[in-house]
Amino acid sequence: MASFLEHHLWFSLLLLMPISATAQNVSRGESLMAGDHMSSWKSTSGEFAFGFQRIENGNYLLTIYFNKIPERTIIWSANGKTPVQRGSKVQLTVDGRLVLTDLTGKEVWNPDTAGAAVAYASMLDSGNFVLAGPDSFPLWESFDHPTDTLLPTQILNPRNKLSARYSDKNYSTGRYELAMQSDGNLVLYTTAFPFESANSVYWSTQPVGSSLQVEFNRSGNIYLTAKNRSIIYMLSSSASSMQDLYQRVTLEFDGFLRHYVYPKSSSSNNKSWSMHWSTPLFNSPNDCMITDETGSGACDCGFNSYCSLGNDQRPTCLCPQGYVPLDRNDLTKGCKQSFLSQSCDDPNQEVDLYDLVEMEYTDWPHFDYEHHQGVRLQWCREACMRDCFCTVAIFRNGECWKKKNPLSNGRMAPDIEGKALIKIRRGNSTLKPEDTDSKKKVHSTSVFVVSVLLCSSVFLNFLLQLGTFLLVFIFGYHKTKMDQTGPVMPSTNLQIFSYKELEKATQGFKDELGRGAFATVYKGVLAYENKICVAVKKLDNMVSGGDKEFRTEVNAIGQTNHRNLVKLLGFCNEDQHRLLVYEFISNGSLAGFLFKNPKPSWYRRMQIAFGIARGLFYLHEECTTQIIHCDIKPQNILLDDSFTARISDFGLAKILKADQTRTTTAIRGTRGYVAPEWFKSLPITMKVDIYSFGVMLLELICCRKKFEQNVENENQMILVDWAYDCYIDEKLHLLVENDEEALHDMMRLKKYVMIAIWCIQDDPSLRPTMKKVTLMLEGVVEVPIPPDPSSFISSIQPI
Questions:
Q1: Distances in Å between the alpha carbon of 256 and those of 90, 206, 483?
Q2: Given pLDDT bands bounded at 50, 70 and 90, which one contains residue 547?
Q3: Cβ(311)–Cβ(402) below 8 Å
Q4: What's the pLDDT tens digit per position in 725-743?
Q5: Can you give the C-alpha Rg of the chain in angstroms?
Q6: What distance in Å separates the CA atoms of residue 660 and residue 654, rounded to the nearest whole number?
Q7: What does DSSP assign to residue 789?
């Protein structure tokens, strides 16, 4: 308690203390120009600086930032709403005014000094930028006008508040604020965006007395104090010393208040901001639950979207399948349908044009218009399909909820039971409904023709001819439709195709998409009304006489349904021909996407890694029949229109000959994607997929192939060995050189490398399950320190 009293005394003295004469004062007439990277006003220690920072769109903010760390983290900005161009200027004028002007000379910002002239300015070592009068007492200081961040020794009183920025790259005022209420309650609340007025509280300390202000001391303690300076509520305390750490408390754009620390020492291995404390929640599936019925909260995702924890363990907004963002640069604005809605004239006629896509662990909890109990999943599906108003159905524990557009408060989290059924249009989503006026014209013309015929002497003869034509047409049309669609495999929705039909669909297997050791894939178009694009996989060297086995395996694959798997539409099992028909995925394979210049973004690579993990988790533990993939590699991961990872070829290893599943890629004796047990006559389990996933996770992290011969250092040739060496030597930054996004996310980089090392353990029993891998990627489960991948030490416990 003595330390707290000392800090209270320090705070009291600070309010009465003039600016130190030792500070590096800024005199009248001095100025800074946007674009001059060497130009700033620094504190005496050089730890903080006042100057321009370039932001993502190429414009500049006038800021205060941490000057001695590579990130140059911004802690205050003057013009977040109105960034300026290169060449703009801030100047302490000769008449004592601090003014920010743009290229045209227009005044963009100036602090309110109540009409008093400024004698000089000073950037203090506390991070406070002060404008002083002739008597050296402050006329204005940044500590009294915070944006989204508090620093040690800074006080948040009822006169000011913290306002989150709009997004990670947009520094204008966002949707969340932290403020002290008149009853002494410290609250986080959403705003009635785009206005800054309060909307609803989603976290509070609750009234704890007559709170005066929030104080943040150098020891890392954050607390509420009363008028008599006594501590009445402790938000966060620190048992360890903060002396060698930079600190900041920031209300971030996702609505969470977080306390970060950064090592001051240049010899420290962890050169990044790490989170010390957070409120209201962190690393929890419930992060997406903090919402109110109007769509606001700590993950305000807008209509027709849903909130999910991203790879950085922060809530992120996503669009469900069949929907696209209203603004790809701002996912919080929501999503819109990319297809025509079901007609209500006769919805039963359009049932075949739509499908329901299942999304596990997903819910839109508000505004259902129908609720049914004691029903089965199939009943719920059919009820939504035949209801033109139904956009989404939620099925959980024998209950079915129907939703219609716009959808609100969507969220995906592992602890959400049940599933969402999203109605989307099959095939071409841009088909236009038949013109109503045209229908009326056709109808009128038909009535006129019939009237004329009824009045003519040849009507009877015409009627006989017409009847004959209709009989032939109906019989022929029915036969054609039967030839086109073919039978459906019982217990699945898989179509059974003839070899001739697929030969025609692929134009004689002309357009080759890819070739593997056991099959070739061709692009095809099914001759239905919607001209559905498909990928037809023609299998080679099938087990002779294996009709029953082939059907059994195809049946198992056909019952799978997951957003991270490529959907099997049908198959051909005719004579010696074995073909599989998959949905066509437009963006090709991960191999074609990952190993190219420029590098895909760090965020997108991590989203892909998470999607692959979810798909494998489903295959291993969630689908009806456990499926081991046996061939996880970038060539077998496809990317759809939104770059969602879709695993292909799952389950095919069981169909192929046993000796074929034991073949390896020619990596000149080095380890590839194939788990070591393939070569040691050990039982093949789902752990072979986990080994392959570990190798591919390293490829996604480093954006390079598992083996590269043309490298300067031969120790870097084999990726798994090099990654482990970098981990042991604490030089993980070498894995992502020239990747600024990854270098600014070192905590997650280290965690993902550790997960990958656990996955590539030579001993299968040490590798985690895919469920555990997924939970570690989500941040729900801590990642323990991994052993040497080639270690067989018996004392090591599996995770």
A1: 32, 17, 59
A2: low
A3: no
A4: 999 999 999 999 888 889 9
A5: 32
A6: 10
A7: T
**Residue 625 confidence (pLDDT) above 90:** no
Q: What is the CATH number of domain 2-181+200-281?
A: 2.90.10.10
**Positive or negative torsion for Cα 100, 105, 106, 112:** positive
Q: Residue 397: CB partners within 8 Å, gap ≥ 6?
A: 417, 418
Let me know if 355 is a catalytic residue: no
**Burial label, 510 (beta-carbon count in 10 A; 0-12, 13-18, 19+):** exposed
| pLDDT, tens only, 199-216 | 778 888 876 666 688 999
The C-alpha atoms of residue 26 and residue 44 are separated, in whole angstroms, by 12
Give the E-state strand segments of 554-667 in sequence order. Answer: 568-574, 577-583, 637-639, 645-647
Kindly report, residue by residue over 477-535, the tens digit of the pLDDT. Answer: 444 333 444 566 655 678 889 999 999 999 899 888 887 766 788 999 987 656 788 99
Q: Annotated binding site for ATP, which residues?
A: 538
CA pair distance 395, 361, nearest whole angstrom: 11
Q: How far apart are CA 224 and CA 216, in angstroms?
A: 9
What does the pLDDT look like over 141-200, one tens digit per residue?
999 999 999 999 999 988 889 999 988 888 999 888 999 887 778 889 888 777 777 777
Look at residue 7 in the predicted model and tell me its pLDDT. Answer: 46
CATH fold label, 495-583 = Phosphorylase Kinase; domain 1 (3.30.200)
Alpha carbon distance 570, 498 (integer Å): 10
CATH architecture of the domain 590-778 equals Orthogonal Bundle (1.10)
Structure confidence at residue 16 (pLDDT): 44
Strands (E), 516-627: 519-525, 533-539, 568-574, 577-583
Catalytic residue among 148, 631, 739, 763: 631
454: number of Cβ within 10 Å: 9
Pairing type for strands 568-574 and 495-496 reads: parallel
Which residues touch 451 (CB under 8 Å, ≥6 apart)?
none
* 2-181+200-281 and 590-778 agree in CATH topology: no
**Any residues with CB less than 8 A from the CB of 118 and at least 6 apart, and which?**
28, 92, 96, 97, 98, 131, 132, 133, 139, 140
Total residues belonging to the chain:
799
The domain locations on the chain are 2-181+200-281, 282-432, 495-583, 590-778
Summary mean pLDDT of the chain: 80
* Farthest CA pair distance, the chain: 115
